[in-house]
Design goal:
By secondary structure, the chain is mainly beta. It has a single domain (17-108), classed as Sandwich (Jelly Rolls), CATH 2.60.120.10. Helices cover 0% and strands 47% of the residues. The protein has no helices and seven strands. A hairpin with a 4-residue loop joins strand 1 and strand 2. It starts with 18 loop residues before the first strand and ends in a 20-residue tail after the last strand. The relative contact order is 0.28.
Length: 123
């Protein structure tokens, strides 16, 4: 099945200059994130029980996982195991487009969902 991202509504990004669109199946979900501008993201460090894979398709981002900072450029892939603290910190000068795959699916992101957020901010 082909996903046409233009057919998926843009999700609110809580004050951050990102465009996010979401698709999900029974066992995994995919969040497409576009950042048109460079700069600091100021996202709080968090964790969740979902495993997460991040694939950068355009541009670059910086993120921190369990205290180690990584630079991801177009074509790079990162894996975040369940329960590990992480955050995205910076979008490179050309912006970025990335896909975040989560298993189990992040049903809390589905439009109209009443599922509680899977994000945790505590230690």
């Amino acid at each position: 099945m082909k996903i046409n991202w233009d057919n998926h509504e843009v999700l609110p990004a809580q004050g951050i200059a990102l465009s996010r669109r979401f698709a999900f199946g029974q066992e995994m979900s995919c969040l497409r994130v576009e950042a048109d501008q460079s700069g600091d993201l100021n996202l709080p460090q968090h964790w969740h029980t979902n495993e997460q894979w991040v694939v950068v398709t355009e541009g670059s981002i910086r993120f921190v996982c369990e205290g180690t900072e990584y630079e991801l450029n177009a074509g790079d892939v990162a894996y975040i195991p369940s329960g590990q603290k992480h955050t995205a910190t910076y979008v490179g000068p050309e912006g970025a487009v990335l896909l975040e795959f989560s298993a189990p699916p992040r049903l809390d992101l589905a439009p109209g969902s009443i599922v509680p957020s899977s994000m945790r901010y505590d230690d």
